Amino acid sequence: MAAFTLKDSQQVNCSLLILDKKGNPAVADAPPTWLVDLPTVLALTPSADGLSCLISAVGPLGDATVSVTATAASQGVTGVLGVTVVGSSPTTISIVP
Question: What is this structure's pTM?
């Protein structure tokens, strides 16, 4: 599984590259389906054609898994991306008695 680190204030646009068993480009039969196992950590905004998706950190720090499933030449294929959300640089400091 591929892995990616995202700060809690970031988002990233990911694109799909669908290949056949010989490494040649393949075309999806229908828009791919994007899912995240922890929607409290990440939000997904797929494009209309499903070939890209904006992944945004939205909640607490932690690890989430994004998966995408497509059908090409009547064969289902799934890709997985592990995403770790980490804290961004501090912006304030408080003194607590």
Answer: 0.87
